[in-house]
Each structure stands twice: as C-alpha cells, then as structure tokens.
Amino acid sequence: MKKPAALYYTGCEEHHYQPHFLDVCSLCQRPLAHNHDIFMYRGDTPFCSHECRQEQIEMDEANERKWKIAASNISSRTKTETPTKETDVNKAVRNGTVAVA
C-alpha cells in the first residue's frame, strides 16, 4: 500500500535558527532584554540604547552627506565639461578658394 502523498522531503535536517529582528541590537549585537526599552530607528531597526541608536543615525547622516557631495561633484563636472563635438558644431565654415596675398 502506498503512503499518502502529503509527506514530502523539505530538507530540514539543518535547522538554522533565524533570530527575530528584535533579539539583538543592530549596532553592537548585544541581546535585547525583553523587559527593557528597545530603541527603534527607521521603523524596523532595533537598538539596545539611545547611544547605539544615535551612533547609527550619525553614521547614516555622514553617509548621506558623502553621497550628496559625490552626486553634486559629478553633476557640476558634467556641466562644466563640454564635448569637443559640440563646440565644433558652433564654428562657421566656408567652402571655396582662399587667396592669400
């Protein structure tokens, strides 16, 4: 007699524990106490203390400033550089014979 088809191999021999996102501090990886305050940032990022949260905020702001500076440098560099083909289009050219005296 055949066994029911509902039993399938799922490859679950290696049970890897996936910690819940509120188990550890996102910065220092310390375990978060479930009976203490958890400091959240950007909706779903937990921190063990105000200090860890503030350090992450400052790192994010520094990265954002670097990105904005890099973007403005690229933008200003492309505005000041003019391709040679574009300047050649603006030159007046006459066809014909030139006589030099």
TrEMBL record:
Molecular function (Gene Ontology), one example: zinc ion binding
Pfam families: zf-FLZ (PF04570)
Domain FLZ-type, residue spans: 20-64
Stretches annotated zinc finger (FLZ-type): 20-64
Origin: domain of life: Eukaryota
Signal peptide coordinates: none
Alphabetically ordered keywords of this record: Metal-binding, Zinc, Zinc-finger
Compositionally biased spans, kind Basic and acidic residues: 78-91
Similarity comment: family membership: Belongs to the FLZ family.
Name used for this protein in its record: FLZ-type domain-containing protein
